[in-house]
Give the backbone structure.
Amino acid sequence: MSQSRLHSSMEAGANIVAGILISAALTYWVLPVWGLVPKLHEALEITALFTAASFARQYGLRRVFNHMSKNSRNMNLSSEHVHGKVKL
């Protein structure tokens, strides 16, 4: 069963919101280990950029795989019709 676009976006959004706090904390507290010391607003800007990219990636991939799944089911149905098979 495939997800609706709304459900896909809600799932991706919930995943992103859950990851925002972790990402912001890691950006702010871990980057200094490599000598990069962002101010709080810079850490939040970096987090926002990666959050937007992550949301687009997750949503886009989910839609591609849902589309592939629908095409696969449609091909199976048309193949069964051609060969005279009826699936119950």
